[in-house]
Amino acid sequence: MAQLWGGRFTKETDQVVYEFNASISFDKRLYRQDIEGSMAHVKMLAKQGILTIKESDKILHGLLGILQDVDNGKLEITSEYEDIHSFVEANLIKRIGDTGKKLHTGRSRNDQVALDMRLYIRDELKNTDKLLFELMKVLERIMEENLDTFMPGFTHLQKAQPVTLAHHIGAYFEMFKRDRSRLYDIYRRMNYCPLGAGALAGTTYPLDRKYTAELLGFYGPTLNSMDSVSDRDYIIEYLSALATIMMHMSRFSEEIIIWNSNEYRFVELDDAYSTGSSIMPQKKNPDIAELVRGKTGRVYGDLMGFLTTMKGLPLAYNKDMQEDKEGVFDAIDTVTSCITLFTGMVDTMKFNKDVMETSAKNGFTNATDVADYLVNQGVPFRDAHTISGRLVLKCIDEDKALDDLSLEEFREESDVFQEDIYEAISMKTCVEKRLTLGAPGREAMKEVLKKNKKYLDEDVLF
Hints:
- This protein has helices at residues 15-21, 24-27, 31-47, 53-71, 84-96, 109-145, 165-190, 209-215, 225-230, 233-259, 287-310, 326-348, 353-362, 367-376, 381-398, 407-413, 421-424, 427-432, 442-458, and strands spanning 150-155, 158-164, 267-268, 350-351.
- It is mostly helical.
- The strands form two sheets. It has a two-stranded antiparallel sheet. Strands 3-4 form a two-stranded antiparallel sheet.
- The longest helix is centred in the N-terminal third of the chain and has 37 residues, at 109-145.
- The radius of gyration is 30 Å and the shape is elongated.
């Protein structure tokens, strides 16, 4: 059992205890961050004269060799080692001898693992942002192509007012834009270097923490050594952001599942992102959307699990914090695959535009516009609302849309109605006269698309 400690112990750790305590099975994915952090630490030690240049060069060469060999598969990370730190240090000593034992000078595993996780999360924040950016480009394309694709807007899952597909998709564009800003906010808060905090109280060695932070691309060093080794806020924040991203994709997935049903037929999913039934040959199931919806609960669980782990921990480091890895690794893997597949599904999805427009007409989504027409003719709004409601009831009884009523039928409820009522309540008019910024009107949407294009062209967060 390769361990970094043991001087004060008189007998071996029980094998079951060792295996329970070990983290190599999951923290091995931190090998790159661990080695890069160690290389920065060694460079700083040499700068400060704690290591000689010869010692520093020898250690750096050995660490680089380990990194390259792990990358190309020549060196396997096995359960022989307790954690990724002991793997790196043991292999370094094996390769360069006693000089390798100086690697850990002025450092604790507590600040070392805190650094590794910050470096790893920092990389993953950028990757998640990149995936969201690609999804948003797909949404932007759909919006540009569907400025005149009319469909019902919903409240309470009931048809409410006519909108366009561009407007509907634009709502998700805004959600994912907020998700990206959340990722950047997390990055700005967590991009400080904990290395040099030691176990909890710093070190007596004359470390240059600012230099180490600079080498690793941090804004600077953390300012309290106890907080440095026990802070996992950035992981909780990232898990929360991932959960919110999943919630947004789950809401979108729910709509796609509904739209894909025989009752709606708003969309047709590409065969590559659908599955069939083992018994019912007619089925084409929206499995990707359903799995995204289902896996949302899994990511929620990762967040709640770690929040619960952290809730009662005293300062500073506690072994409980080893639980920061598996949950966040699972959440990252889940969200990465979900965004990737979701983007492909949406990008290849076909919209049945005629069905959408017919659904908007048959759902009386222009009933509010009938009332507005009357108000513009001097009828009090409350009376106009009642007249429009009676017309809807008549249409329901006769299985008609409001557009199908004759002028005489309109005038039976109010002699204010004229021939121009048909133009006033057409889907095109109902949508295009809504011109306030953020509304579905064509001119308003063109202004939003212009802003979106600028955002996608210029808004590089990281």
